[in-house]
Design a protein that fits this description.
alpha+beta; two-stranded antiparallel ribbon; 4 helices
């Protein structure tokens, strides 16, 4: 099948661009919110460049990704409008400079020491990685 014809069948320009980015390998992962209310809803795309882009839900036309950040444990964290929030890892919770986005050297040392005592590991299995109630899936 001619990919151009396939893309031309998609009337919505945003959806057409999203499909094109998947086909060309620009979008490499999707992020799902695994809360009870979202139940695996795709909330974001992750590009090969690392860019994170919110996705509009096709059923209700709403965007559910509220925020994202690179956590100090090396994993991505997300916040969904449903209330699900993984932007802080356990080692960062309660460290005021981290929580207020104004870290001091002592805050970073605290997080580092906590991570040394309790290292985290979220293994990827079959292209899926569950991180604090969000699932990151590799597009094959």
């Amino acid at each position: 099948m001619d990919i151009t014809k396939l893309l031309n069948n998609i009337k919505d320009p945003g959806q057409r661009m999203q499909i094109q980015n998947i086909l060309t390998g620009n979008i490499v992962k999707v992020v799902r919110c695994m809360s009870k209310s979202c139940n695996g809803r795709i909330v974001a795309n992750v590009y090969a460049s690392g860019k994170i882009e919110p996705v509009f839900d096709e059923e209700d036309g709403k965007m559910y990704l509220r925020a994202s950040r690179n956590r100090l444990d090396g994993y991505l964290g997300f916040q969904c409008w449903c209330g699900n929030d993984s932007r802080l890892c356990d080692a960062e919770i309660g460290v005021s400079g981290i929580e207020n986005n104004a870290p001091q050297k002592s805050d970073l040392e605290t997080v580092w020491n906590r991570l040394q005592k309790r290292p985290v590991n979220y293994p990827e299995r079959d292209g899926k990685q569950d991180i604090d109630n969000f699932r990151i899936e590799t597009i094959k």
